[in-house]
Amino acid sequence: MEVSFEVTYHPTEVGKEILHKNLLCFIQGGSPLSLTLSGVCVGPPSVKEVVNFTCQVRSKHIQTIMLSNRTNQTWNLHPIFEGEHWEGPDFITLEPHQQNKPYEITYRPRTLNVENRKHQGTLFFPLPDGTGWLYVLHGTSELPKAVANIYREVPCKTPYTELLPITNWLNKPQRFRVIVEMLKPEKPDLSVTLKGLDYIDVLSASKKDYKLNFFSHKEGLYTAKVIFRNEVTNEFLYYTVSFRAIPSGIIKTIEMVSPVRQRTSASIKVENPLPYSVTFSTECRVPDISLPSQFVVPANSEGTFSFEFQPLKAGETFGKLTLHNSDLGYYPYELSLKTMPALPEKPVHFQAVLGSGQSIFAKFTNYARQKTEYYCRTDCPDFHAEKFLYAAPGVQGGTEVSVEVYFEPSRLGESKGTLSLSSLVGGEYLIPLFGVALPPKPQGPFLIRAGYNMVIPFKNVFQHPVTFSFTVENPAFSVRAADSVKPKKINNITVYFGGNPSGSKTPITSKLIVACPPGEGSDTGIKWVYYLKGITP
After folding, report:
1. Structural contact between residues 164 and 194, judged by C-beta atoms closer than 8 angstroms
2. Fewer CB under 10 Å: which end of the chain, C or N?
3. Torsion, CA 381, CA 382, CA 388, CA 394, rounded to 10
């Protein structure tokens, strides 16, 4: 039975021969064996090949060399690397007479070349016959490329945070100084913020996220190089980040509620981060919104912009209000506008005796900015107005408009109604109307010459046909009139004076009484009295 064991020889001087005789090898259960060892230390072999490597720092470059065994023995080789930047398989086996077996050498530089000096290293393959193969390794460590090229689209006026993973490639903690270099635009833009902490600490062989904050007031493309540098070793890594600021969505929805034609106001706070004052222009296409064309915000301060809502029609609507400055971009706001029904206008009071009327001009304020046609109607037949009213364009703050209303009562006592003026442009106005009808007053005297007639117009002011009674107290007068009078129609009463029955020329007086006969409902008892005076020439 044969048992193999290895004897390792580690010489310390070149050329010196070492000889050890009669060394005993003790075998359990057997007799000791005698062993003689001799060794000679030879100088290092000549360089077999120079292998060059080039790659970015903290990346890798792999080169392959070919190894051959021209002997009849199997070689189990243990490569020895000098230089921290290279590595390869710990063992390689070459079979007898095996040719060109590949062996991969990996160059993985962790630092940059100092003063343009390449990294130096060697790879040595000790051979069983005491010789060896020596390879010289040269490494060029180039500047690192970006860890990543990041592109993001971010709405204006919206804070955004990008997380940049930072890897510590060393087995000890590292502190990195953070430097943000703007690439685009070339000129500094004070309306854009791109920043984070000045330093970041990363534990050994670990990873940590760095928070990079971006904010832009206006649209545009902003590109920066974010460098993380170890100030002790001067090693660094970096990211290239590009942020395209796109139009922002609605910054805020502003709700406003107001009755028709009543004013309500709202305000918006706008920050100016610039070291100089800025002027904002305003735009709103909602006709019921009043606002200044522009306003100024001082440097490095916050300004307040106020506007008013004065609706002309009830209902709900939505609109958009935009502020703009060339340095700070657009600020879009949504308006949610709700209009409650109009409050009544100032009431108009009338007073007239039954059978007559009264005309008064009712007034309202027209806010429509264009010539407007109003449709007029009343809900009580005792009040009358023209069917249409035309109003000139209103000025800022409104223009007063008058409409004539005629009150003609059809019954005694109080009458109530509402005058409604409506327009698609100007909205609706409601004017309360209050009327009081007094009992008829005596009229006259009416002078009638003997032998002549006089016509006295009498109008049926009621809303239905009425059969009136016509009587005179003195028989020297006679009356002729239609018995039934249609509503709102005029009946001419003809009164004849025959002269003084005594033959004298003394004037004769009398009364004509027009009355509603019994059975005419609420009109019963109403009388119209006309004084008559007959004259005999």
Report:
1. no
2. N
3. -130
Together in a domain, 28 and 133: yes
Distance (Å, rounded) from C-alpha 123 to C-alpha 65? 11
One domain, residues 115 and 154: no
445 prior amide bond cis, ω within 30: yes
β-strands 132-142, 399-407 pairing: unpaired
In 3D space, the residue among 171, 170, 176, 165 whose CA is nearest the CA of residue 110 turns out to be 170
Residues 52 and 136 in one domain: yes
pTM of the full structure = 0.63
Beta strands 199-202; 252-259: pairing state: unpaired
**What span, in angstroms and rounded, lies between the C-alpha atoms of 517 and 302?**
82
pLDDT tens digits, 475-523: 989 998 777 788 888 888 999 998 888 778 889 899 999 888 766 555 6
DSSP E strand stretches across 231-371: 236-246, 252-259, 264-272, 278-284, 289-290, 294-297, 301-309, 315-325, 329-340, 348-353, 358-366
Q: Which residues contact 350 (CB under 8 A, 6 or more apart)?
A: 358, 360, 383, 405, 407, 433, 434, 435, 436
Rounded Cα distance, 528 and 413, in Å: 16
What's the token pair of residue 354? 């039954």
Number of domains forming the structure of the chain: 5
Alpha-carbon torsion 11, 17, 18, 21, what sign?
positive
Lowest-confidence segment of 1-5, 120-124, 524-528 by average pLDDT: 1-5
DSSP 8-state class, residue 145: P
Residue 303 burial (C-beta neighbours within 10 Å; 0-12, 13-18, 19+): middle
Separation between Cα atoms, residue 342 and residue 419, nearest integer Å: 13
Both structure tokens of 107: 């160059």
Residues 290 and 229 in one domain: no
Phi-psi region of 285 (alpha: psi -120 to 50; beta: other; left: phi over 0): alpha
Helix (H, G, I), strand (E, B) or coil at 491: strand
For the chain, give the number of residues: 537
User: In which region does residue 153 sit, left (phi positive, over 0), alpha (psi from -120 to 50) or beta (all else)?
Assistant: beta
